[in-house]
Write a structure and sequence with these properties.
- The structure holds two protein chains of two kinds.
- Chain A is built from 13 helices and 22 strands.
- In chain A, strands 1, 2, 8, 9, 10, 11 and 22 form a seven-stranded mixed beta sheet that branches.
- The radius of gyration of chain A is 21 Å and the shape is globular.
- The two termini of chain A are 30 Å apart.
- By secondary structure, chain B is mostly helical.
- Chain B has one domain.
- Helices cover 59% and strands 0% of the residues of chain B.
- The longest helix of chain B is centred in the middle third of the chain and has 22 residues.
- The relative contact order of chain B is 0.14.
- Classes of the chains: A alpha/beta, B mainly alpha.
- Chains A and B meet through helix 2, helix 7, strand 8, helix 10 and helix 11 of A and helix 3, helix 4, helix 5, helix 6 and helix 8 of B.
């Protein structure tokens, strides 16, 4: 215990995508940095292999949190490496449409491809990004591609952070949704955090931050407890929030920050997976899992995108309707199902609040326009799947929120936002943030790569 | 969790997973013995609410519970607050039951039935790297390993 220092130049709350990158950048400049992370530190051999364990131990609240009317399940990782451990590794840059949307709301000039491209390129120094090879595409992916072609839609190969993935050994990437045992998936734990730790960063995993106290001019105090419920208080000159839309909003509300925009403008890219039953086996769990995404300007303009996806049985069970034989026979025949999901660029903002007993309450619903986008996506998916011989397509109304964004928007006007264009908090310039919680709206594109780019930009421009 | 609640979970589990000639029902599978692998990680408030709900299920005759669950999963025409309740029950109970039944716990204990093998769900996991570097970094830099 005597080795545990209590004072740091920087404390970063959250060792996910943004936190690990900022830690690496700061440590490379000789700063002393402490990362506080509520989740466990899993790596290679000790990743959990059973879905029951990974659901309950790598996500908040045992696997899923529901919005206030239980129509959307919010999937919030709680693990060192954050979303980069449990996602499919997909990394897409934003397009002009997404960045123009950000710029219109925030009036911040760096939301343009010209400004962000250098940071997108810098990610390649520690992260290998590759197209998922078509020769290993499984039948679920082939159905997606051929169905697009049959309907005159445009699709493209997905790119993801991966290096030397052992496809040729017959490995199935669905098993890596609870952590990649070979370090092929380029999680920020295996890339940026590794370098940060080599350069002296400290981390406290399984540490729950409860309070930020910025009342002193000398330092900011961060208190919370470890896994044994022992209380700790650390102090720092500068504090960086990196625990995502819900984590950051909740902490700021609980710590008594007054900005009325905290918790507002929350977006999730609600995703709806449609399951299609075929006469033959699809074996959607095989190989790289995902290969293609929609690359159709018409879809993009209408506010949705499609991806070929699948998930392990317990997660998939949420998508099958009914009870008894109607439900059970679907899971029993899971290998005859393929799936495509629609992901909506949601326009209706939600709000994050803290209720009784510190319970997170998320108000988030689809507007009529959002529902229209979802339904257009459903129509396209059904056309694709039926064109490839699906016997039936099961349509569910339960949405999944994997891309949790906003709640602490960045912007040029204090009355409309929480963080300023230099990523510092209007209420206290010593507190900063560059993760997805600063997003001012839903970009309609996987946010990971842009969180990485913004985090690099922020950390490199951080002044003494 | 009290015995009546566990009985309630088994009854609800059998409504989702009744079993057939090749696979056991949820209660026959005995995966309920592993319920703490989920419940230990749910927040205290949610766990208390779940235990209360499952206790009610435990005290309710099975035929009434079957009728109730048929209503729960066909919620679309109910008023919004009932819809919310139905969705919460459906997602929560189905999630627990299916996570226990379909997680391959039989690989750890041969006394459990071979569910994943029977349904043909057998993804291949890559052989793990040792990653001794990360092991050493954690030992030296993660305070959690020092307390």
């Amino acid at each position: 215990m005597k080795d545990i220092k209590l004072n740091y130049d920087y404390i970063i709350i959250g060792a996910g995508v943004s936190g690990c990158i900022v830690a690496e950048r700061l440590c490379s400049r000789g700063k002393n940095v402490l990362l506080l992370e509520a989740g466990k530190f899993f790596y290679s051999k000790n990743f959990l292999t059973k879905e029951v364990d990974s659901n309950s131990q790598m996500y908040w609240n045992g696997g899923i949190e529901l919005n206030s009317n239980a129509s959307i399940g919010l999937i919030r990782p709680k693990v060192v490496g954050g979303g980069s451990i449990i996602n499919g590794g997909l990394l897409d840059p934003f397009d002009d449409l997404a960045l123009e949307g950000f710029k219109d709301i925030t009036d911040i000039d760096f939301f343009s491809l010209n400004s962000l491209n250098p940071y997108y390129e810098k990610i390649n120094s520690l992260t290998t990004i590759e197209k998922i090879p078509e020769e290993y595409a499984n039948l679920n992916s082939k159905i997606f591609k051929q169905g697009f072609k049959a309907n005159g839609f445009q699709c493209a190969s997905l790119e993801r952070g991966q290096k030397n993935c052992p496809y040729s050994d017959g490995v199935d990437c669905i098993t890596c949704l609870s952590g990649c045992p070979t370090n092929s998936k380029q999680s920020t734990m295996t890339t940026y955090l590794r370098e940060a730790l080599k350069n002296g960063a400290k981390i406290f995993s399984e540490f729950k931050v409860k309070q930020v106290d910025n009342s002193s001019r000398e330092s900011i105090k961060v208190s919370g407890h470890d896994k044994n419920l022992k209380q700790w208080t650390f102090s720092c000159n500068k504090l960086i929030l990196a625990s995502g839309a819900i984590g950051n909003s909740k902490l700021l509300i609980n710590s008594g920050f007054k900005n009325k925009n905290i918790g507002k403008n929350f977006y999730t890219h609600p995703q709806y997976m449609l399951m299609a039953e075929f006469d033959h086996e699809v074996n959607a769990y095989k190989g790289p899992l995902q290969n293609y995404k929609s690359d159709d300007l018409n879809f993009r303009k209408k506010g949705f995108k499609l991806e070929n996806v699948f998930a392990p049985p317990a997660a998939i069970s949420a998508l099958f309707n009914g009870v008894g034989d109607e439900f059970f026979s679907c899971l029993k025949n899971i290998n005859k199902f393929g799936s495509i999901e629609v992901c909506i660029r949601d326009e209706n903002p939600g709000e994050i609040k803290v209720g009784r007993n510190n319970k997170t309450i998320v108000y988030k619903e689809l507007s009529d326009l959002d529902k229209k986008k979802r339904d257009l996506g459903f129509d396209a998916i059904k056309n694709i799947l039926y064109s490839q011989g699906a016997k039936r397509v099961i349509e569910g109304d339960f949405g999944i929120g994997l891309h949790l964004m906003g709640g602490c928007s960045i912007g040029s006007e204090e009355k409309k936002s929480v963080f300023a264009p230099d990523f510092s908090m209007y209420e206290d310039k010593r507190i900063s943030c560059a993760d997805s919680s600063i997003f001012p709206n839903a970009p309609g594109i996987n946010p990971s790569l842009t969180i990485m780019a913004l985090s690099i930009k922020f950390a490199e421009e951080l002044h003494e | 969790m009290n015995k009546i609640a566990l009985n309630g979970l088994e009854k609800a589990g059998d409504i989702y997973i009744p079993g057939d000639q090749s696979l056991p029902s949820f209660s026959e599978s005995n995966f309920i013995n592993e319920h703490q692998r989920i419940l230990s990680f749910i927040s205290k408030d949610d766990r208390a609410a779940l235990e209360l709900l499952l206790t009610i299920f435990g005290l309710t005759p099975l035929f009434i519970l079957k009728i109730l669950f048929n209503k729960v999963v066909n919620y679309h025409h109910y008023p919004e607050f009932i819809k919310t309740l139905c969705r919460t029950i459906n997602v929560g109970i189905k999630g627990i039951v299916c996570a226990l039944y379909f997680s391959g716990l039989e690989e750890e204990n041969p006394n459990y039935p071979q569910i994943l093998k029977t349904i043909g769900w057998q993804p291949k996991r890559a052989k793990a790297n040792e990653d001794l570097e990360m092991k050493s970094l954690i030992e030296r830099h993660d305070f959690n390993s020092m307390i």
